[in-house]
Amino acid sequence: MHFDRTAFGDQFLTVVAAAMPLVGCCFYRVEDGRHVVDHRLSGLSPYWLNRYYHRFWRFDPLHPERVGQQGIRLRSVTRETARRDAGAPEYFEQFLVPQNTVHQTELYFHAGSRIVAGASLLRSERNGPFTSDNLTFLDRLVGFVEDIVLSDEDEASALDIPGLTPREREIANLVGAAMCNKDICRRLDIELPTVKTHISRILVKAGVRNRAELMKKLHGRG
């Protein structure tokens, strides 16, 4: 199963935002248990999503790649916990704080042994930390999604092109969905020359000559 980004992701964010005060939240898919793609934003600026892709994902202590396949559903970061993780203070002070965020809780959705999706929930000092009731609700919500929505998802790898950056992986996924360059620009809020540059690099890393060959590879026919 692939998440319908305009349906499930947006509806999930609506439910969470109605259940507790947040300064913003986002929903995303996870490929191969570690590559974060297809962000859906609520109350967050695309500017910071671009900043995340270009730099801060490397220091994100809640990134799925750092969680691994341990069945963890929830993990949080605050200024105090960030001090214990190399790189995390930079992520906290230079990425979260400028967005008026001092509390972040990450949700991880599993299908079988793999993390296949996640959500970032952000709160300000004024909102206060996530309460035990908040965390209990979120844990049950993740469990519900896993049991009802993800229970039939297979274990196949979504994409196996080595060396792609998170942004390249996201764009490759959109190419595989038959999305044209202009639509990719609108979806990701980036310029057309940037999309073309990314696709050129993706073709090289995938070992293919053109977009058609890339789509065959993405769909397992190449």
UniProtKB/TrEMBL annotation:
Entry keyword Ligase: no
UniProt xrefs under InterPro entries: Sig_transdc_resp-reg_C-effctor, Tscrpt_reg_LuxR_C, WH-like_DNA-bd_sf
Gene3D superfamilies for the chain: Winged helix-like DNA-binding domain superfamily/Winged helix DNA-binding domain
Residue span, HTH luxR-type domain: 157-222
Entry-linked Pfam families: GerE (PF00196)
Coiled-coil zones: none
Keywords carried by this UniProt record: DNA-binding, Transcription, Transcription regulation
PANTHER family xrefs: DNA-BINDING TRANSCRIPTIONAL ACTIVATOR DEVR_DOSR (PTHR44688:SF16)
Descriptive protein name: Helix-turn-helix transcriptional regulator
